[in-house]
Amino acid sequence: MYIRFHESTKTFHLFNEHFSYIMCILENGHLGQIYCGKHIHDKKDFTYLVEKIPRAMASYVYEGDRTFSLAHLKQEYPVYGSTDYRHPAVEILQDNGSRISDFRYESHTISGGKPKLSGLPATYTESDEEAATLSIILKDPVTQIRLELLYTIFAFGSILTRSARFINEGEAPVHLLTAMSLSLDLPDKDYVWMQLSGAWSRERHIKNRPLEQGILAIDSMRGHSSHEHNPFMVLKRPSATENEGEVLGFSFVYSGNYRIQAEVDTHDTTRITVGIHPDCFDWKLDVGESFQTPEAVMVYSANGLNEMSQTFHRLYQKRLARGFWRDRPRPILNNNWEATYFDFTEDRLVEIASKAKECGVELFVLDDGWFGARSSDHAGLGDWYANKERLPQGISGLSRRIEALGMKFGLWFEPEMVNKDSDLYRAHPDWILQAPGRSNSHGRNQYVLDFSRKEVVDCIYQMMETILSQSRISYIKWDMNRSITECYSAALPSDRQGEVFHRYILGVYDLYDRLTTAFPEVLFESCASGGARFDPGILYYAPQGWASDDSDAVERLKIQYGTSLCYPISSIGSHVSVSPNHQVLRNTPLHTRANVAYFGTFGYELDLNSLTEEEISEVKEQIAFMKEYRELLQFGTFYRLKSPFEGNETVWMCVSDDKKTAIVGWYRVLSGVNLPYSRVQLQGLDPDVVYSNPMNGTVHYGDELMNVGLLTTDGTSGETPRDIRNYGDFQSRIYVLKAAEK
Ligand code: DGJ
Q: Which residues contact residue 636 at a Cβ distance below 8 angstroms, ignoring those fewer than 6 apart?
């Protein structure tokens, strides 16, 4: 992969074998966008693509010239206060009240690898050969603000990452009001916009609509990336499918307020911007200070959505997630939340864990309710020491008992929150986010600690560090159960209140960083009332996340299918829970609950003591199956084959790197009588390898399975031998296909 600069035409070409990204320095010193798409040959001059014609009502930069208007030029980082009336990437409020800026090219450098972003999560490289980085320096001559735009192109996929850094080299402070991470102008609007939206317990459903003139955006102003809209968006050509056609995916490596927007002008040019939400953002940049935006990641695919997702999966699994657990199959866990909620004793927990151990579970997780005066959601948050009435031997005693069973022990925290009924709040009532003289809203009876303050983060770290050092803890579930309201910090002056949302997230990242550094072998699972912070920012610290509080198998089909558009299977927390399910009261077969949960981290969210002997033997088989195949399921190449958003059936599959094993998950929501024949064309197999299908004992070449398809015919008539468990609503099957011995 290369980055070339052609001096004579002032053109940059970033490319690898699949992808090209071309920019140039325009005559006013701003950066122009020339091409983003499938790889094309490099050459010196692409400037014919900077199209300029006189247009009525346009405003022009140069006297005597009626062609150079930024309104009609494709740009890389448009400013506010120019001849361009579209939404800018940057807006800076200056001492004299002006918001106009004019960032002009000064210099650039090209280097191997990828620099770290200070204090922020970001993708990374492990050698200089994995990626190349272009740093372009621009400067505003009036404010003397220096702007560094970073572009990194990866070798292994069509991936371009971007961020911006502002340095105040002037003589007066300024306020950054808009500082986007990515801005990209595309030459047409012939795209379908796809987003992952929902609400608590139905996160990341796929929603599509065509781009049209005007503005289309998703965002969060809740202080976290939100259940409502994941910080991810896809533009696909209308004819693109899972396996064909042009697709561009945009993902934001950030966990706070954000906005992803497409602005289509009336000449059908599309401007994409990705970054911190400009509303409620106002960062004071004092003389000599710098501000680094979070990273935005763009993935291009000429071969449909599956390829785009696989590129994101590889990048986020291998070069965003880090640490001990990055490449390791995840432990099968049993979490007590839906088994007991707040109603447990130490002995009851050990009873649940013992049964789990008997079935083969490897990790027992104690959820909410173990600390302070926490017997309901009215008290205790902030007091991170064991409730001795419930746990007489503390967390250290309980963790020793669990380990004595031969299992690992994990613990739930909600570090960012406090109940008013807590020792922490009584000692520091001013440590919550609240505006002077105004009432403060609660969510789930809790208040948000001011994580923009170092002393608050220090205090929480100390409490967590103590528990972690004194006990045998192998896993932490980090929860966050409310959105931020009345965002005001008692520690910041009035002209810095617009920084609180971002400083809060920096505080969250700081705590994650300290804990993961001090306890590198602890597995972190993020959670925010299910999936309200299922974003790439958190994935940098916690390699897996609880995808949703909805553990119903049918609901999970949509949630996990949508999530897979951007996030790797190894990151998707998925558990088997009881029937009827606690969220939707639906009864689903035990095997279907497991068949869905296999495509994730896998665990149980119930008391296995409540199952029948027959069910327990099924659970034992499930756990044995997951242990055998989890490496493939979590780290193989994932393909979506049939969408739960489009019909009654869902099909997806994972293929091992050597293509010798593939696991297909087939799910049918409602049953039917005398159904049509059905088959599904598989993906990613070796066409020349013969695979055996243990469901019916047949063998098939890979090309046959990919072109003729795998037969999935089912119904209440036919000759196929039947297992009574496999009829009725909410059915599913797992097909394990193995390369037959030669
Ligand atoms: C919300 C989480 O999503 C649940 O899994 C559980 O941990 C509860 N919070 C506990 O309060």
A: 569, 654, 655, 656, 657, 662, 663
Cβ of 734 closer than 6 Å to ligand 1, yes or no, is: no
- State the Cα–Cα distance between residues 257 and 481, nearest whole angstrom: 16
Residue 309, H or E segment: helix 304-318
Distant-in-sequence, close-in-space partners of 494: CB < 8 Å, separation ≥ 6 = none
Nearest CA to ligand 1 atom 10: 368
Mean pLDDT of 644-660: 97
- Residue 366 near ligand 1, beta carbon < 6 Å: no
CA 7 vs. chain centroid, Å, equals 38
Distance CA 184, CA 170 (A): 28
| Best residue among 478, 481, 524 to mutate for probing ligand 1, ranked by most atoms within 8 Å of CB | 481
pLDDT for 537: 98
| Rounded distance between C-alpha atoms, residue 555 and residue 531, angstroms | 14
- Percent of the chain at pLDDT > 90 equals 95
Q: How far is CA 660 from CA 193, 643, 654, 734, in A?
A: 36, 25, 11, 16
**549 catalytic residue (yes or no):** yes
Tell me which DSSP letter residue 196 carries. E
Cβ neighbour number for residue 51 with a 10 Å cutoff: 10
- In terms of DSSP bridges, do strands 192-197 and 679-680 run parallel, antiparallel, or are they unpaired? unpaired
Structural domains of the chain sorted by starting position, each given as residue range(s) with its CATH number in brackets: 80-319 (2.70.98.60), 333-418+473-485+521-635 (3.20.20.70), 649-739 (2.60.40.1180)
3-class secondary structure for 47-101?
Answer: HHHCCCCCCCCCCCCCCCCCCCCHHHCCECCCECCCCCCCCCCEEEECCCCCCCC
Q: What distance in Å separates the CA atoms of residue 464 and residue 349, rounded to the nearest whole number?
A: 21
Give the mean model confidence (pLDDT) for residues 240-263.
Answer: 98
Q: Is 163 exposed, middle or buried (0-12, 13-18, 19+ CB in 10 A)?
A: buried
Q: Is 412 in the pocket of ligand 1 (CB under 6 A)?
A: yes
605 lines ligand 1 (CB under 6 A): no
Dihedral sign computed on CA atoms, order 718, 720, 724, 725: negative
Q: Answer yes or no: are the C-beta atoms of 520 and 324 closer than 8 Å.
A: yes
257 and 294 Cβ atoms separated by less than 8 Å: no
Strands 731-739 and 661-668: antiparallel
Q: State the pLDDT at residue 696.
A: 80
Report the separation in Å between the CA atom of 619 and the middle of ligand 1, taken as the mean of its atom positions.
24
Q: Is residue 497 classed as helix, strand or coil in its secondary structure? A: helix
Q: How far is the CA of 530 from the centre of ligand 1 (A)?
A: 7
Judge whether 286 counts as a catalytic residue. no
Phi, psi of 458, rounded to the nearest 5 degrees: -55, -45
Give the span between the Cα atoms of 473 and 396, in whole angstroms: 9
For 358, the 3-state DSSP assignment is helix
- Ligand 1, atom 11, lies closest to the CA of 368
3-state secondary structure of 88: coil
**pLDDT(222) > 90:** yes
The pTM of the full predicted model, rounded to 2 decimals, is 0.97
